[in-house]
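User: Fold this; tokens only.

Assistant: Input:
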Amino acid sequence: MTRKTVRIAMNGVTGRMGYRQHLVRSLLALREQGGLDLGDGTVLWPEPVLVGRRAPALKALAERHGLEHWATDVDAVLADPAVDIYFDAQVTSAREEAIKKAIAAGKHVYTEKPTATGLDGALELARLATAAGVRHGVVQDKIFLPGLLKLKRLIDGGFFGRILSVRGEFGYWVFEGDWQEAQRPSWNYRAEDGGGIVVDMFPHWEYVLHELFGRVRSVQALATTHIPQRWDENGKPYDATAADAAYGIFELEGGAVAQINSSWAVRVHRDELVEFQVDGTEGSAVAGLRTCRAQHRSATPKPVWNPDIPATEVFRDQWQEVPDNGQFDNGFKAQWELFLRHVYADAPYHWDLLAGARGVQLAELGLRSSAEGRRIDVPEIGL
């Protein structure tokens, strides 16, 4: 067995997602399992190079996890021929320029989304990477969640018949920051810093809908700022200039309609922080992050509307749990493994920068739909 060390520049790893999901639960988890076996006698050994602006934070992370390499000079890291892959988990406003530099340096690129602040920039990244001949991928973690993998199993098995509709509920209450610390960074609520729930979540909904149900053909959205003032990490009040809630209707290829509510100003009264209900002619299912429940046409009860007496049925008990039927790994780690196999074993991979651009497009058109108060067609894009 030959071990091949793969140096991966990780920019923005001091942030919540970059640290927890990508460093600890993905690349370090791969090291803990002995590396990634390519099946040809080669084992990939990821060697993270931590990159960011705050030297003390980077040094502390490196020491905590026994890592040797960290730097605040991204240009110097990209100039290092020993670095193969550039990963970006920075704030959105800084991502586009950094990825351009990585592509110009000949590095393979793997990045969080959205890939850019606008569609033109996202398409340019896809074109530059394709022209440079580097491999490129975009994080699309939701489709690797156990709940959605079970949902896809039902779809692939024809359980639903003709799918009629998809209804999604996502969100939770993000504290304003005055008397309880906010769970999300303050830049998320400033449009000038690339924040906003449409920019954050519509790229997720694009690939979830596209992968499971079909391409989004039109969008009608209402984005709003329910909480106009919040408090930042230093306890100082600031004006929230970005939407903290968005209510979207998406027409899908094939005729199904999806309705998804996204909010950081909603208190949770559901089993999981995100749930999707799919209704079809032959059956329905409700999928969350980890669980999925289904109800077939043949087992559908016959409720009767009568507001004058208490309901005697426990509706949740009328659904059947979809079994795991396998082991589910961390979704971020699973996609990292696929991308590494794509780079080093030429395995197929289609979640690229063009796929990321579709997410940016949907967010851009969603904001436009909200501003103009109308439904907007979503044209197909290409290089």
